What does this fold into?
Amino acid sequence: MAETRGVIATLIESFASLPGIGRKTAERLAYHVLRMPRSEAIAFADALRAAKDKLHPCATCFNLAEQAQCDICLDPRRDRGLLCVVEHVRDLLALEQAGSYRGLYHVLQGRLSPLDGVGPEKLTIDQLVARIRAGDIRELIMGTTPNVEGDATALEITGRLAGLPVEITRLARGLTVGASLEQANREMLADAISGRQRI
It folds into this structure.
């Protein structure tokens, strides 16, 4: 019985180690897996194993890929002169789901955070600069998080690209469609005011 409790405790701890998963949610997930038919549980475990064994950073943009380059970099229909810089693969996926961007990406694999020991050398900034120096990119879109660390990361990149023939733009900020002013935070409201447009 003690061994069974150890196995369950290990499973709960494994779920609890995931970001955004608290102890209660970890327990629910663990017991859900235990109630699953064996075939479904094994398929779930196999999916995790395959993701760890087969996926790696794209050699060009650092998106997840099963081959040397990801599907986006290999897609000939993409606008190869347009490059959007994002912090994480999940940011890239969010933009892809929006469906309105048809250029290429560069995943930084994080953002500058000196307090956490993340400097420029821990990001893929050098590789980004090399891509811009290759001369194929006409516009670089900064898609970093609109906060202090994201802005510092964008500033670092902009400084490194000074003098290179590339237009640098930033994703628009401000209020989302349908959002009320009371629900917006201070930074969103400041960006909405400074970025206002004539109507």
